[in-house]
Amino acid sequence: MTLRTVLAGALLAGVLAAPAQAAAPWSDPAAIPGSSGATPRVLGGVIAFNGSGSFPGVPLLRSVIGPAGPQAATRWDNNGLAFDSQFGAFATGDEILYAGSNGHQRVQIAVAKRPTSHWRGVLRGPTTGGARVAAAPGAAVFSTFEAGDVGRVYLVRETDGEIGPSIRVSDRGHIRAVAVATNARGDARIAWDLRGVVQTRLWSAKTKRFGAVQNLGKVSAASSLSVALGDDRRSIVAWVDQQVNEGSTGVKARIVAMARTATRGFTPKLLETYPDLNVVSGRGVEVAYLSDGRGVIAWSGHDAVRAALVNGRSFGATQDLAPVTPTDGQLQLSFGDLAVGPDGDAVVTLNAPIDDTHAQVLAVPFAGGAFGPAEQVSPVGGFLGRSSAGFVDGRVWVAWGDPGARVVEVAQRPAP
């Protein structure tokens, strides 16, 4: 009997999962009536996901979170617009913002004033064969694929429901990834991978102008890219350096981050290098700022979902959040989401494979300045889709798709 078999059996029995007292605050998972097994997004007081069908004709559905919990799914009126809950980008602020392909030739930017509002959308940017997209409250960015498989990065600002024009951000070239973050002042930091160089630029809400382009580091390819921006313009940029679906490169994945303060420039930190050629799973890497001004980074490590805190330009010790699953080249924990609450708390969600056909959704809360133990959110089941998390009215909500059962499931607990 192999170690993998022993550990898988133990996990199925619940032996190595989170302690029972840690999992108790979570509600029993509930299937949203009328949902499909598509990838859900927790967007403040609403959970959005696609219905049955294929993009671009598939409808966007929503389940509004009411006093009694998530309501039955209804069609989210999109006036003929196309929304992709898996590959499109959503952001929540004063309004809900979406950026993604419209299934035709340009990039769609749409805004809904509140969870119960209709969408209003526009097309932005030049004709393109596709787009990489990212969104933050009040801002969307996208890169285009034009003639010769090259394009540029564009920024679109949104204020009080009004969608602005496309603003060119980068030089022309092969763009592999984009990311954006905003702060309460309305500033926006954009990052992208241009021909193997991660670059960043800050847009000032006060001057309505960009600062200079900064080169942060060379990469084989940024397969995942994330940005955080503080109110004083402190910033974190993190990425996964690994080519995926671009041929056999023989390059081991690297997770890299850079942080700066309002007055001192970026300093680098190599968070992890994979010992083999395994592909980084899940969301790869995500960064955010807590309400106390500290940064937090979460990523899919080789044999654990990991996290680290950032204080100014200093990176704290790496913490293994859920190193509970054997990784023998076939099984890997998959990082799902990083959500930050209003009171200095946060939660990291992940998909823990139990064996080749079973998985479980876990959540790791951050409270009191530290991450707690992993908590069971879902029971052990078949293949479960990537989870999404969000804070709503003092509670943390986690949603995930179950393609086998063709439903979206939701669980919640008091905020940590």
What is the gist of this entry?
This protein is mainly β and 416 residues long. It has helices spanning 3-12, 20-23, and strands at 30-31, 41-43, 46-50, 60-66, 69-70, 74-75, 89-92, 96-101, 107-112, 120-124, 131-136, 139-144, 153-159, 162-168, 175-182, 188-194, 197-204, 209-210, 214-218, 222-229, 235-241, 254-260, 267-273, 285-289, 295-300, 305-311, 314-315, 319-320, 334-340, 346-353, 359-367, 370-371, 375-376, 388-392, 395-402, 407-414.
Description:
The longest helix is centred in the N-terminal third of the chain and has 10 residues, at 3-12. Strands 2, 3, 4, 5 and 6 form a 5-stranded antiparallel β-sheet that branches. Strands 15, 16, 17, 18 and 19 form a 5-stranded antiparallel β-sheet that branches. Strands 24, 25, 26, 27 and 28 form a 5-stranded antiparallel β-sheet that branches. The chain is mostly beta strands and 416 residues long. The chain has helices at residues 3-12, 20-23, and strands at 30-31, 41-43, 46-50, 60-66, 69-70, 74-75, 89-92, 96-101, 107-112, 120-124, 131-136, 139-144, 153-159, 162-168, 175-182, 188-194, 197-204, 209-210, 214-218, 222-229, 235-241, 254-260, 267-273, 285-289, 295-300, 305-311, 314-315, 319-320, 334-340, 346-353, 359-367, 370-371, 375-376, 388-392, 395-402, 407-414. The chain is built from 2 helices and 36 strands.
